[in-house]
Structure formats: structure tokens, C-alpha cells
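Sanity check

After download, print the first record. It should look like this:
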Amino acid sequence: MNNETIQNILARRSVRHYREQPVDKETISLIVECGLFAPSGMNAQPWHFTVITNKLVLKKISEENRKILQQSPIEKVRLKAQEPGFDSFKGAPVAIIVSADPDIYDPASACANAVENMAIAAQSLGLSSCYLGSFKIAMEKPEGSFLMHELHIPDGYKPMYALIIGYGDETPGERAPRKENTVTYIE
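Expected C-alpha cells:
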């Protein structure tokens, strides 16, 4: 099928290594706009987007995450946090944090839809992306709550997901086959 939208959906892959090349503000704004137009239950739009292009801010969040991960009871997690160059955002020049108002109907699904819209938009614009959940570890702990304030996340909102965006510096390997027996058709 020769449909550009479907081709972008099928081609999108998670990329975890990025070039330092910045993404222009106009492109970032267009991607965020695509997130804002995601479907949400009862059109509640329960999200807040925090767009971060400041490397020092991204590094600060990563360092706070590292402190917590180094205390994990899981050895593999502790070792990952001790790696030189640990970076929650994989070196991407842009991170878009999507936070949710937990008092609105089904905020997790709405925020997930917004991130997916942005990931597909980025793909269609020739950019790479990766959907993240682990970026928020420090923000979920009392000692990391200062980050919520510094990132201007509205009171009561909860960081849900992030999308990192940039120019990929890797070629993803062969795509894993899709699991079998995961679709049932009732006719």
C-alpha cells in the first residue's frame, strides 16, 4: 500500500542514540501541536506538555534519576545507573514530558495517545524518537519534587510519559516479529 501515514507508522522505531544537532523550534512546535490534537476521553485533554531543549536541565533530571537508581534493590538497575555517561534522555536534544491531571477521566490513555501522535509526526518529518517512562523516577520521589516546580508542571499533575526527539545516530536492527495469535476477528 502506498499510504504515507501508514508507511510512517510501520517505519517508526525507538532510537536511543542521537546526534547533537538541534531541532528547530518550528518543527518542535508542529510536533507538539500534533500531540495536542490527540484523542482523549470526553475530549478532556488532561495533559500538560513540558518541552525541554536545555541540555543542563536534561542532565539535572538524569542525575537525580541516577541517585535513586543507584539505591535500587535490583543489581542490573544499580549497574546501569553507575555507567559513565548515564543519561535518561539518551543524548536527545529534545524531550517532551507529558503530564496528566489525575482527576480527569482516563488521563493515561489520553497522554499515551498524545505521545504516539508526536512520535509519528516526528517520523514523518525525518526525525527519530523514543517513548520513555523511566525519565520520571526522581519526580515521583519526595526528594525529587523540586523538579516538578522547576519544570513548571502544574500542581496536582503527574508526569506520565516523555518523548525524546532528534536526529538519530544509530540504525536500529532488524525489527522483532510481531507476536502471533494476538488478533481475533469476530465476523
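If your output differs, re-run the checksum step. Summary of this record's structure: The chain has one domain: 18-166.
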